[in-house]
């Protein structure tokens, strides 16, 4: 059989987690929290399951959850959306990204993405018959060159995908970035897919500029969010997409034939969590900033160059002073010989630069971070 994705194999995240398990290494590779979901969330999940709420939810989402998401958006971004027509609950943010891309991409269309990029973007574009146009962000600042973006746009360009706060670089788009993005979207009549799954995790006073904050940008956007990142429950695979009515309608046409609907008890539990413990979201940035600081401080005696993390729960390390190995080989060495699992940055690129940078996840217990840093400082 001829493969539709001939150049893809098992993801690096699965590979590194498998190696970490095999060599009993500390796993700072795959981006999942080591700590559990909030007690209320788990309690309400069990409650709704026991109450018999175990059948299909409405395809666009349980009304109670849509309403709570709308209330959150109004509180955080001062933007009022109609929950019934604009909010679609999905089986994780990756499903939402896939559906948004399928909904708007025709054969021959081009979609601009920024490397290093989350690994689901390109396959989803290609499965829709489109072409991913890669624009490289350069270390150590990883800032977008908007002139380069403008030059990359042509009559085939359909959309731009942004990710802020950005995985894997841990950088955040600035107000100037947003202004330049808006100008290009309007000038070329483009759509936007805004991946904002780490929207509540920003550090050192940095502000998250959501596409929901600007009505002109929102009018041509799909905004993707993740409950898994926010409530430490990545295994639940729960997310949502917010879009204006016309785009949401197209999104739902595809969504109904991908998952149709998402886990009903979880939707009801999440609605209760948003209603009763919304402070969790407000405290998330400080919680993860403390985690970041613990790891950064513990690495001060190492030979790594620690790059600035402005958001997400990731930290980049430059190991140029330690080894000449490429980053994939270096990560394999770290697992087998040092006992720490990381992710090589090159796998996030279509054409990787010759950087020697790895990504660590610090969504872990303090003891885990300290133990990992101790091993890394011995290099």
From TrEMBL:
Name this polypeptide is given: Methionine aminotransferase
Native source organism of the sequence: Pseudoalteromonas holothuriae
Family stated for the protein in its record: Belongs to the class-I pyridoxal-phosphate-dependent aminotransferase family.
GO terms for MF: kynurenine-oxoglutarate transaminase activity; methionine-oxo-acid transaminase activity; pyridoxal phosphate binding
Tree of life domain: Bacteria
Cofactor(s) required for function per UniProt: pyridoxal 5'-phosphate
GO cellular component, one term: cytoplasm
Keywords linked to the UniProt accession: Aminotransferase, Pyridoxal phosphate, Transferase
EC number(s) recorded for this UniProt protein: 2.6.1.88
PANTHER family on file: FI04487P
Aminotransferase class I/classII large domain ranges (all copies): 25-371
Enzymatic class: transferase
């Amino acid at each position: 059989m001829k493969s539709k994705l001939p150049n893809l194999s098992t993801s690096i995240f699965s590979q590194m987690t498998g190696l970490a398990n095999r060599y009993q290494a500390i796993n700072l590779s795959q981006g999942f929290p080591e700590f559990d979901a909030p007690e209320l969330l788990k309690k309400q999940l069990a409650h709704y399951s026991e109450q018999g709420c175990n059948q299909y939810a409405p395809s666009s989402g349980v009304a109670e959850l849509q309403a709570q998401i709308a209330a959150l958006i109004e509180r955080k971004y001062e933007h009022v959306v109609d929950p019934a027509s604009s909010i679609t609950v999905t089986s994780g943010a990756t499903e939402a990204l896939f559906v948004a891309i399928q909904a708007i991409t025709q054969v021959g269309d081009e979609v601009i993405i920024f490397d290093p990029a989350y690994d689901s973007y390109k396959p989803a574009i290609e499965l829709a018959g489109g072409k991913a146009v890669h624009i490289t962000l350069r270390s150590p600042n990883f800032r977008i060159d908007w002139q380069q973006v403008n030059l990359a746009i042509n009559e085939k360009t359909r959309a731009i995908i942004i990710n802020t706060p950005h995985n894997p670089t841990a950088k955040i788009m600035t107000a100037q970035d947003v202004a330049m993005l808006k100008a290009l979207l309007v000038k070329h009549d483009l759509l936007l897919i805004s991946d904002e799954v780490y929207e509540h995790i920003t550090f050192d006073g940095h502000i998250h500029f959501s596409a929901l904050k600007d009505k002109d940008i929102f009018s041509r956007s799909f905004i993707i969010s993740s409950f898994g990142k926010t409530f430490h429950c990545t295994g639940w695979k729960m997310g949502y997409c917010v879009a204006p009515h016309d785009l949401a309608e197209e999104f739902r046409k595809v969504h109904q034939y991908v998952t149709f609907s998402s886990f009903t008890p979880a939707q009801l539990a999440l609605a209760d969590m948003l209603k009763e413990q919304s402070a969790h979201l407000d405290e998330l940035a400080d919680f993860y900033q403390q985690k970041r600081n613990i790891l950064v401080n513990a690495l001060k005696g190492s030979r790594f160059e620690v790059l600035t993390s402005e958001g997400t729960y990731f930290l980049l390390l430059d190991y140029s002073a330690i080894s000449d190995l490429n980053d994939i080989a270096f990560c394999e060495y770290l697992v087998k010989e040092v006992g720490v699992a990381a992710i090589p940055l090159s796998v996030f690129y279509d054409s990787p630069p010759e950087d020697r940078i790895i990504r660590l996840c610090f969504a872990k217990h303090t003891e885990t971070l300290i133990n990992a840093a101790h091993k890394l400082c011995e290099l």
